[in-house]
Every structure is written in structure tokens, then in C-alpha cells.
Amino acid sequence: MDSVPDCIVALTFYALWAMFLVLCVGGARVHQVLTGEADITAFPAGVPHGPDTYWRLNRAHMNTIENLPIFATVVLAGVAAEAVDSTFNTLAIVVVCARAVQSLVHISSGAAGAIRLRFTAFAVQIVCQMWMAWLILQAAGVF
Do 99 and 15 touch, CB atoms closer than 8 A? Predict the structure, then answer.
């Protein structure tokens, strides 16, 4: 059996990160309901509710979910196009690390400095994924 490319491992960790964040959101909701801090109906979708940290956690989870299909598409296209090399794998790992940083900063603070750091982590992800897409198109002979 061939070894699994690092980019597939990175994609798996990205998905695990999304699952971890949703479990944190669920745990926070259960805690709020069980302690009487909130009613079970107090969590409308898309509407800010609960403590500030909880809402930032909720948004960090949604940001992760919103970007997972893009990352998955790029990684799986890279594997299908046989464009995976050490650079491609490294870029995929950087994407996952930057996503974790973005989420943790998002959860920790809404201050201006945190927002700048969060944007930087997001920008790193976008640049890496665009580079990965470029490598795929090069492997496909488009460029």
C-alpha cells in the first residue's frame, strides 16, 4: 500500500478541527442549558446570542466550515492531478496550522490586534491554497 500524502493527512486534521469546534459549541450550549444560564430555545441560527466568547467560538466554527470545501477541493484535485509534491504537502500543512491559529485567536479576543492577527492567518491560508491551485494547473499543463 502506498503511503498517504501529507496533504490528505492535513485535510483530515482540518476536518477534525471543524468537528472539535462544533463539539465545543455544543458543549457550551449544553452547559448553558444545564446551569440555567439559557433556555434550550436560546440559540437561533445566525443571530448573535450568549456570551461574547461563546459567539466568537460559534463564528470560528462557521468560518472553518465555510472554508473546508475549498481546502478539500484543492487537496483532492491535487491528488487527482498527481500534483502533490513536497511543496504542495507543506502548503497544505501550513493551511491547517493557520486555520487553527485563526480559530484560536478568534475565540480568544475581539480586540483590534486579534482581528489583525486573525486576518493574517486567513490571508496565509488563501495564499497557500492559491499556490496549491497554481501547482495543480501547472501539473495539468494549463500554465
Answer: no
Say how many C-beta atoms besides its own lie within 10 A of residue 9's C-beta: 16
As for how many domains the chain has, the answer is 1
Q: Do residues 63 and 14 lie in contact, with contact meaning Cβ atoms separated by under 8 Å?
A: no
CATH number at residue 110: 1.20.120.550
Assign 3-state DSSP to the chain and report helix, strand, coil percentages, each to 5: 75, 0, 25
Print the domain residue range for 129.
6-139
Residue matched to cell numbers 480586540 = 111
12 domain residue, yes or no = yes
Per-residue pLDDT of the chain (143 residues; tens, 9 = 90+): 579 999 999 999 999 999 999 999 999 999 999 999 989 999 888 788 888 999 999 999 999 999 999 999 999 999 999 999 999 999 999 999 999 999 999 999 999 999 999 999 999 999 999 999 999 999 999 98
| Residue 135: CB atoms within 10 Å | 20
Note whether residue 1 is domain-resident. Answer: no
